[in-house]
Write a structure and sequence with these properties.
CATH superfamily: E3 ubiquitin-protein ligase SopA
Strand order of the largest sheet: 1-2
Largest sheet: 2 strands, parallel
Distance between the termini: 39 Å
CATH topology: Pectate Lyase C-like
């Protein structure tokens, strides 16, 4: 399902109010929404629900997705450079041709995610991060932070 830009901006504003406990705030629910090519750079979507959304070719540079539900999201060719995905759930997410350099993936769950041609140069993960069974994040340039 597509969404109008104005409606997306309203959802983002309501989510910001939700995060700061202001009146009129509402947690962002973008489940199964087609956000192809959208620019969400530096947007705070902490704890938002984007399950099953399409973020193909989206710009998520520096976006805060901490604790967000990103299960089944299609991130094909998206830019997630510097995004905070600490504690996010990316179960079954499609991450093909994605720039995830300098991302924070500490505590993220990427079980059954599809990672192909992904750049994780400088991305941080820890012992809580769950990777697909045969995936080696160090081969893509990710850095394990011990004791975090």
């Amino acid at each position: 399902m597509k969404i109008l830009y104005e409606a997306l901006q309203q959802i983002i504003k309501q989510h910001a109010k939700f995060l700061s406990a202001e009146d009129g705030g509402q947690k962002a629910n973008l489940e199964c929404i087609d956000l192809y090519g959208v620019n969400l750079a530096n947007v705070n979507l902490k704890g938002a629900n984007l399950e099953g959304a399409s973020l193909r070719r989206a710009v998520l540079w520096g976006t805060n997705l901490e604790g967000a539900n990103l299960n089944g999201v299609n991130f094909k060719h998206a830019v997630l450079e510097g995004a905070n995905m600490n504690g996010a759930s990316l179960i079954g997410a499609v991450l093909k041709g994605v720039n995830m350099e300098c991302c924070d993936l500490r505590g993220a769950n990427l079980m059954n995610a599809i990672l192909k041609d992904v750049s994780l140069l400088g991305a941080k993960y820890d012992q809580r991060t769950v990777w697909p069974e045969t995936y080696n994040p160090a081969e893509s340039g990710a850095i394990c932070e011990k004791g975090s």
